[in-house]
Amino acid sequence: MKSLNEKSSEFKAKRKRRNHRLLSYTWRTRKSFIPALCLDGVDTALNLLAPLVVGQILNEQVISRSQNGLAGVDGLAYYFQLLGLYLGLILLASAIGYAGQYLFQVAANQISRLIQLDVFKHLQKLPLSFFDHTAAGKIVSRVTNDTKALRTLFAQVITRLISAGVFCLGIFISLFFVDKTLFLMALLPLPILYFVYKDFKSKSSHYSTLGRKEVSELNSQLNENIQGMEIIQSLGREDRVLQKFTQLNDQHFKTNYEFTKLFSYSSSNVVGLLNRLSMAAILAYFGYASLAGKTDLPLGSLYVFIEYMRRLFQQFDIVLQRIGSLERSLGAADHIFDLLDQPIVTYQEGDLPPLQGKIAFDQVNFSYLPGEPVLKNLSFTVPAGESAAFVGATGSGKSTIMNLLAGFYPLDTGQISIDGKNLDQIPLPALRQQMALVLQDPFLFAGTLYSNISLESADISPADAEAALREVGGGPLLDRLEKGIMSVVNRQGQGFSAGERQLISFARALAQQPRILILDEATSNVDSATESLIQAGINRLQEGRTTLLIAHRLSTIRDADTIYVLDKGEVKESGKHAELMAMGGLYAKMYQEQAQSIAS
To answer: How far, in Å, CA of 139 to CA of 123, rounded?
Structure first.
């Protein structure tokens, strides 16, 4: 178990890496961010100059003239010059402040865009094992909510904190030159303000971390419930699901409530009280000193001091308002960078000549979890252009074979080769361009039939996509659609039957012209009437290709060149349909049970 010092060191190192990465994103937007910082500095200087001009008016043009009278036209002209200067400073500060904030917003949007793009690119390179163990809702939350929080970090938090810091520093520098006594008095509230800041920062960090975790859980459950709504409603579990969601929602409400109390206490209450007490003390001190004749501080200088102190507390209030957002944003940055630190799958680059399609598994062992083997010393060979079917009970390892062949998971031991070349030595992106995978529940993207078949490939024209769909038996589908191949496809193919979705996925595979075809229980979700149509599409797909089939309905793989019967990750039987039936083993028993089930 790690010691507290080790944990502290790890936390500091992680924080340092996070800040460095945030700075790197800032540097990538330097053309907007640096000018924005410069404009913000000018805006601060102008806002600090304005009270000095008012102080000058009070000292030289109001108090002095009220005692000695206006000294002709020259004195009046100088008075209006100061007023004009004050007005000019206000207007110029407003214009420069607008330009600075605009550039800050531009930089924040650029950073948000860059981070979202980097996260999405990284997601595409992560191994499937990551998605096996991470809820989709949590991933979506990081890509959307966390990047949104980072945009807030740069658009509102960092900019305001920088502005507040520059403003406060400018106030103390100005007071030092105006009057040393005023400068020292301005330092008096700082210890209390520092204590308030540390207390607020510590507590807000705790509530922010807790709140992010709760939002992630809420998003995860919401996403899961939406995807499983059909099951929830069919089993009448709405109340139970609502109860669980309500518990998470109530806990998040309590966390937000505690954060609200903290914010109200620290910002609006404590800072405001300190501001008013400071002003009262300052006025009491200088009022008494003036009546007692113990100070000759000009009224204009007193005004400058009071105005600066008001703005000092105002800036500190802004710091507290933003510090909570800062903690949330930095936590979001940790979430995003944790995701970006997930190890990716690195692929060998290069081209791959057209495959013949010979596939060989040699003593392959594989397990998703340590100590729980799925495949055990699995060996088989599929000659180029032939078909091999894999049958067996659920969990026997059928789908795992397809996942390993596609390179989705690394082997524990053993070797997979294609055309005699080890899979580890083949550029996987190039291999997958010559391979097509059709799943039992085909996924259709929102778009059109054409975009779903071509997958946005410029090499596949609408005519090619239509020809592929008709070739696998999708002619009736095209004929009933008014816009044909350009018909709209809604999310997950809603509005199309299971058989039609499968035909579209067949056309997608055919249009890619693969050398190796993988069919993962492609007929398991269709009725018997549609099965013959699907089977015709499968037969067309198989022509001239090495085909691996996972079959639930054994009647669909009777014509396979070789059938492998799997049991607990091992090949128990292999041969043609007639040979396996003659053996009277596992396959024959499975086939007879299915036949009896259909007959009954």
So the answer is: 9
